Amino acid sequence: MSKPYVLGIDIGGTNTVFGIVDARGHVVASDSIKTFKHPKFDEYIADLHDGIERLLAANDAQDKIQGIGVGAPNANYYTGEIQSPPNLPWGTVPFADTLSRAFSGIPVAITNDANAAAL
User: Fold this and answer.
1) What is residue 60's three-state secondary structure?
2) What is the Cα–Cα distance from 2 to 118, expressed in whole angstroms?
3) Element (H, E) at 69
């Protein structure tokens, strides 16, 4: 089965926006959750996973995602961690590995939000 989409995620201190993106860079659909309402990282990941699953189901894209790209404050591309971001309460967390496991091993790449904005 072809996997024509990627998932993009932008983690901000107030909101986390996520979207399904096609091979031409067009956003097929997007949604968001409130970042700040999750003082615990596990709760945030569970809410993010649920929101993404709803978006994928609504767009018949559950088995069509080939990878996930994430922009986040203080994200380290090399380790996959978000490292003690100034605007989030989680400390250092293994974001890429945790999200990949939540989505059955789909590859996750993460970078600092400033680098992501430059792209």
Assistant:
1) coil
2) 29
3) strand 65-72
What is 108-119 written as a DSSP string?
EEEEEHHHHHH-
The dihedral over CA atoms of 40, 46, 49, 50, expressed in degrees to the nearest 10, equals: -130
Write the pLDDT tens digit of every residue in 32-84: 999 999 999 999 999 999 999 999 999 999 999 999 999 999 999 999 999 99
- Give 5-118's CATH code, choosing from 3.40.50.300, 2.40.30.20, 3.30.420.40, 3.90.226.10: 3.30.420.40
Nearest to 48 by CA among 12, 82, 99: 99
